[in-house]
Amino acid sequence: MSDQKKTYPLVVAAQQARKHAQARYSHFEVGAALETKDGKVYSGCNVESSSYGLTICAERVALTKAISEGENQFTRIAIVGPNNEFCPPCGACRQLLFDYAPDLEVITSNGSETQVHPLKDLLPFAFEETKLKRS
After folding, report:
1. Is the torsion defined by CA of 19, 27, 59, 84 positive or negative?
2. Which end of the chain is more exposed for a tag (fewer CB within 10 A), N or C?
3. The pTM is what?
4. pLDDT of amino acid 119
């Protein structure tokens, strides 16, 4: 869903975080800003490795930062990528975000417009904790 008129301070925080991205291989710089239930914001940027599998996305940086500081309730995340295009979270980020905040609102921006989606719409039929059988 598009929300052209609304301005999100969280998008601005994601844009600021993007400035710190370390994307020397892909040159695809991403910033993210995650908001807690109490209104605190944790930002992150993507950090690449020459061993691509070790690369970590901006969304996961923001989430792990927040969790490592004791946060566990999240409301929204804003994600900003390059080239004035909408940058939704990748599959791995969608799953990790779902594990910790299934009701999260995902905001993306192309610089002039924003899109807002419930995370559950971006990850239908998500793998959930309830699928893990405990003996």
Report:
1. positive
2. C
3. 0.92
4. 98
Instruction: Identify which of 58, 38, 36 has the alpha carbon closest to the alpha carbon of residue 47.
Output: 58
Catalytic residues: 59
| 108 belongs to a structural domain | yes
Q: Is residue 1 part of a domain?
A: no
Task: Identify the weakest region by mean pLDDT among 1-10, 66-75, 78-87.
Answer: 1-10
Our count of domains for the chain comes to 1
Interaxial angle between packed helices 58-68 and 91-100, expressed in degrees from 0 to 180 and rounded to the nearest 10? 20
* 23 assigned to some structural domain: yes
* Strand blocks (E) in 25-124: 31-36, 41-45, 74-80, 105-109, 114-118
Contact 56, 21 (CB under 8 A): no
Could you tell me the CA-to-CA distances from 75 to 15, 36, 39, 41 in Å, in that order? 19, 6, 9, 10
